[in-house]
Model the fold of this input.
Amino acid sequence: MSESGERSKTTELEPHTPEGVAAAKKEKKDFMIVRAFWEFIGGIHRVIIPSKTEMATSRQGRRVIENDPNPELWRWAAGGTLVIVHCKDRSVAVLLQRDMGAPSYPGAWTMGSGLSSPDDDLSDPTRIAVREGFEEIRIAVQPKKNRRGVPKNRDSGIVQPVFGDAALDNTTAYATSGSEMDMSHPDVPDIFNTRMDFERERKVRVGASFYKAHGEETLEVTHADGSRPTTSQSGTVAVDPKTRGIDFLKVVEVDLSEYYLDEVTFFDGEVGEGGKPLNRTVGCLEVHRTKNSDGSTQSLALGSRFVRAQKGGKDIDHSQLKVESVTPTLLKMFESVNGVSLDPEKLRAFLTGVVHADSGHSAPLTLNRLTQFVLASLPRLKR
Done:
């Protein structure tokens, strides 16, 4: 492995320097990725950012990096969050269906994820994962009256997950602000429109915590020039040869136990040109949760059926959702959380195989049925 990445002759890339990063920030580029080395040795993923590497801030530059003929060079950084929402009546994992114009895996189901931005610290993939997850999956609550088992006078507004860590909480505050979105667009639900009352956004701050999935691994990030200390973090790592991408993924539990699922609004926070929302379909996948005696989570298992779906913040028929394909990040996260080994076709079949087309309802999938499915058809991952 050489000390620096081979310089390209294309004008779509530029040197990754402090001046270049500052210029990308000033120009408010949507993303910034770099060429980096990746290796997996002794059970540890290592990302090494060369002392002289290049970065991309455009779709054209992204394609150059993702189609690099050098097998040692990979795209860094990217990340995402599997958002698990615990409501009064049930727990769900919030998924998105990619738009047909997406640069990779159009139409596939995925989790909230994306590329690093010029403002991100490439040595801190956890914050990148959290920011991307909650930028793409916006959540709001609107309490209904006369609901049993919940406090009176519950708050209404945009949900901001709070970890109790200053850096992470600043990240979620920014991610849930919607500052890059055209809030006047008709696809944006009224409850997410903070422009008219920007000085005091209607934020509902709720508890959030990381869930350690079975398949989490250690990832180290090293700057070859020694400009930053090497960092080591634990998460699910998805390696995609097709896009030359390394994605760092986390599972975050969001406590909405004072709200029923039908009081929660989900909205796609991804934007296109001019701040126009992509308005992709949001699907809520059932989650099986086992609790400890103190009410905390002991274990989670992702189920096979959607129990709710929304588009533009409005409910649509979840029984009509189709899973034609899944992204490598969702595949890897499903493996990591459930502790199984899957291929895309088996996961797609699992997510569609129990739906009754005649009734629009799914056969109940108990944790025992899920376990039987796993043990019968899939080898266990090493723990």
